[in-house]
Amino acid sequence: MIFLMHTYMRYLLFLCCLVFSLEGKAQEKWIPLDLQSRIALAEKNRNHVILAEYFLGKPYMANALSAENPEKLYVSLEDFDCVTFIENVMSLYQSKGQDSLYKKNLIHWRYSQAKDIRFETRNHYFSSAMQQLIKDAWISPVHSPEEIQINKSFAFLSQFYLKKNKNISIPALEQVENQLRFSPFTYVPTAQVSKLLPSLKEGDIVTFVSKRNDLDVQHTGFLTFRKSNWYLLHASQEVRRVCVSDKNLLDYLKSHPSFLGIQVFRPNFIK
Question: Cβ of 70: how many Cβ atoms within 10 Å?
Fold first, then answer.
């Protein structure tokens, strides 16, 4: 009898552990069935804009990522800023609908070191992420005869946190900024963007270059061709949701005098 009771107790303990394990795994599920279907459709058509459109209307959320160490991987398909929107769509597109691969891709887009997630290893500057992804052959820059090269100080982040009492290594941030400072930085000025339009493709990633010398870009989104013109599919801080811009690309640029011009990057699966 005592033996049977011990056996029963061990069985109950096993069930508890199994439930706990399953609950833990459930926390790693992010991609619902309808989104899996949308990913498959986007892959079939080789067009990640189809996937990006799934999130139309989702709210804009600023400052959702960790403000200091310890850095926690933020995963949400319910709210975005302009950068996390790009990160998530691209990570999902290359995930084959698998949660584990989506998470792996997201870390690769967001951090310089996949196995060392810290505030300092996050790609705070969009240029850092683009350099890394170009090196890994995930994307390619779209060059133009109209582009020009300028020098930027890339000092915004370290200066912003210098006098704040945060658990952040300022020298580590400065090291990243120094590397970016001595890397070529090119863009197409607003006045010349019209000449670039024939070279654009559906789903190209566009960044809007800041007039600030200490900052690379101020906004980003996907280009989409509608109504015989190029528009922006993005997480808009102004509209506070994921949307397609009311203005076409040229008019959007003209309505934002804080932009110097644009950069364009093309995911390598686009032909």
Answer: 9
